[in-house]
Structures are given as C-alpha cells and as structure tokens.
Write a structure and sequence with these properties.
The structure is a single chain. The chain is mainly alpha-helical. It has 3 domains: 41 residues, no CATH class; 50 residues, no CATH class; 48 residues. The chain has 7 helices and 2 strands. The protein has a two-stranded antiparallel ribbon with strand order 1-2. The chain starts with 12 loop residues before the first strand and ends with a helix. It comes from Caryophanon latum. Keywords: Coiled coil.
C-alpha cells in the first residue's frame, strides 16, 4: 500500500484519529508519520523503558555500579571514618578534626543532642551557678532601671558586685 500523504513511499504505519466519535484511518510511511505525529517509532523503547522504570525501578541487571563515596581519612594515623564507626575508637587526637563534619550527626543519633548537659565537678558547677546568678541579677537590674525603680536597681547592683567579689576570691558558699 502507498502512503496516503506523500503518495511515493510504502505505507508502514496506520494512524487512527478520532474526532467527535468519527474514526479516520491514514496509512502513512515512516517519514510522513514522523512529521504528522509527535510520537516517533525510535522513541517508543526509550519512552516505555522510562515509564516502566518510574513505576518499578531500574532492573538490577541494568543498574550501574554506584560510585564509591570518598572516604574521610585522618592524615596523621590514616584511620578511616568507617574504621572509627566499626571500632568506636579514634586512632589519634587529630581524628577529631578529620571527622569533624561527621561527628555532630553521629552524636545526635547516639545521644539525642550535641551538647553535654551531664554532671560537672562540684567546684565547676558552683562557679557556673554563681556566674548564672550574677547574669540574672544584671538582667533584673537593667529591667529595674528601664522601669525607673532605681532603689531596687541599686540593691541588685550591690548584690551582683558581692557575688563577683566572691567569684574572684574563689570562695563559694
């Protein structure tokens, strides 16, 4: 059969168009079909492959080998981050710097956070509590000055100075 469009080549494709319930069939050659219809025969495999891949994923036999991640290695002791994860120990003190980018994620996953909020030695915790109390007094004093309660502000200032002297002298009560 001859192409109904160009009247020169052999018709290889039947294009069916439906308009208002009426079917119109045309027998076309590859070239005319490619010009009239946006769907190309050569694209059929790629389009079908892409569609199936989206639905079912790429078949295992077609998957390319995943590129290996560049391993983080300590320059001093040559411990890799994977070795650290396996052993749970750093090779040297420079490992802290070498694995700096990975540690916050790891600590958050293991401990629920990246900040140490556990117990401190008594002397350190007393000093920290004293510093916190001084800061709170200073903040309350600023608020009192803003509200023009100058007598209260003076008392707070004196109390903060006494605590600062105690902190500087090393005595804690």
């Amino acid at each position: 059969m001859i192409c109904e469009n160009c009247q020169q080549r052999e018709a290889a494709i039947v294009v069916t168009q439906v308009n208002n319930g009426h079917q119109l069939k045309k027998h076309l050659c590859h070239e005319c079909a490619a010009n009239i219809h946006p769907f190309h025969v050569e694209q059929q495999h790629d389009t079908l492959h892409d569609m199936l891949s989206t639905w079912f994923g790429t078949p295992t036999w077609q998957k390319e080998k995943q590129p290996t991640k560049k391993q983080t290695v300590c320059a001093s002791c040559h411990t890799t981050f994977e070795q650290f994860l396996q052993d749970g120990k750093f090779g040297c003190s420079d490992c802290y710097d070498a694995f700096r980018d990975h540690l916050p994620q790891l600590l958050k996953r293991l401990h629920g956070g990246t900040e140490h909020i556990g117990k401190m030695p008594n002397a350190v915790s007393e000093k920290a509590a004293l510093k916190k109390r001084i800061e709170l007094l200073r903040q309350t004093m600023r608020t009192a000055v803003e509200e023009e309660r100058f007598e209260d502000a003076a008392k707070l200032r004196d109390e903060a100075r006494a605590l600062e002297a105690q902190l500087a002298g090393g005595e804690t009560s």
